[in-house]
Amino acid sequence: MARKKPHATSGQVSQPAPRVRRAKPKPSKAQKKVIQFDTQLEQLLHEAVVRYGNHYELGAQAGVSADVLSRFARKERNLRLDTAGRLAHALGLVLTS
User: Fold this and answer.
1) Predicted model pTM
2) Is the residue at 20 inside a domain?
3) Is 79 exposed, middle or buried (0-12, 13-18, 19+ CB in 10 A)?
4) How many domains does the chain have?
5) Within 13 Å of residue 26, how many CA atoms lie on the same side as its CB?
């Protein structure tokens, strides 16, 4: 069976578009994992970051990315110990035993 030649119209492409790999869809906010803070230090830092409010300004003072602070405030991630220390210093928190 012979293939039919496509009708020639202005602007019609005779070859199909190349396949593009699509990135995995990002999970919605409802699907994102919410973590629980295990220590009082994590809870204290979380409350202080949320109370401070401006993640850009706090991040600039502490040398921490505002994105990291935003995800920490939304309970989507924990902080590394060095990051927590810089953040505590910027907030004026002193750890005592």
Assistant:
1) 0.65
2) no
3) buried
4) 1
5) 2
In this predicted model, which residue has the larger pLDDT, 66 or 23?
66
Q: CA of 45: how far to CAs of 3, 7, 50, in Å?
A: 69, 67, 9
Q: From residue 82, give the alpha-carbon distance in Å to each of 19, 30, 87, 93.
A: 44, 30, 9, 14
Under the banding of pLDDT at 50, 70 and 90, the label for residue 11 is low
Q: With respect to residue 78, please indicate whether it lies within any of the assigned structural domains.
A: yes
Measured CA distances, 12 to 5, 15, 17, 32, 37 (Å): 13, 9, 12, 43, 58
Q: What is the model's pLDDT at position 89? A: 93
- What is the pLDDT of the chain when averaged over all its residues? 84
